[in-house]
Amino acid sequence: MPYFDHDDCQLHYEEYGTGTPLILVHGLGSSTLDWEYQVPELSKHYRVISLDVRGHGRSDKPREKYSIAGFAEDVAALIEHLNLPPVHLVGISMGGMIGFQVAVDYPHLLKSLTIVNSGPEVKVKRPKDALMVAQRWVISRLVSLDVIGKKLGRLLFPKPEQVELRRKVERRWPMNDKRAYLASLNAIIGWGVRERLARITCPTLVVTADHDYTPVAAKQAYVNELPNARLLVVEDSRHATPMDQPELFNNALLAFLGNVEKQPH
Prior knowledge:
Blueprint: E1 3-6, E2 9-16, E3 21-25, H1 39-42, E4 47-51, H2 68-81, E5 87-92, H3 94-105, E6 110-116, H4 127-142, H5 145-156, H6 163-172, H7 178-188, E7 204-209, H8 216-223, E8 229-234, H9 241-244, H10 246-262
Parallel strand pairs: 3-4, 3-5, 5-6, 6-7, 7-8
Antiparallel strand pairs: 1-2, 2-4
Helix pairs in contact: 2-3, 5-6
GO cellular component, one term: membrane
Protein name: 3-oxoadipate enol-lactonase
Domain AB hydrolase-1: 21-244
């Protein structure tokens, strides 16, 4: 199981397959396990590298203030550690935020960017936003990870036939370190790079579920601000699209990456 050290923190990553490097970045409170339905398919075509960002999975959980910029530094350090050429980066939710941060801070490291159910800022702009953020902040502090996992499982996978996916969330969520989880949640609130989107010139695919937490229109609005991006809406999906629609997601991602690979550089 490979690890590398960056900024006094031991970080865990996994590698599969050969070819152009493709880095997968998970969401808040998750780990490399986010991608269990992607790795077998993607690794037939690419050198797939999935990372546990600090505070998550098998990586260290230092007692410090976390930031999206700091998580992006970890990704950049992994690319440097492995001496990789420009990579395809895929990030979901908080991993998408990290992807945006890498793209504006280290544009030379990316060959393409795929953002899944995420956005370039988490800013409070309306009273409704403030209420939502405050509720999540308070609930995350007062409620056990066990209870959050059960609630999240029902929210992400509400259908009777999704019972196994629900159980995965219920099992995995309590394995988080609560302090690191809260530090990561704090890193998200108030973060944003929207004013720097013009820096992201690599081909960009934005994937949104039709039932994600934020509306499709919000994704379309920021896609319009990106120089080289398109939006894919996945129907009958929620926040964990790679898990609830794996085949559709994998095919769409491979088609996008294949087109990028064909472009002259």
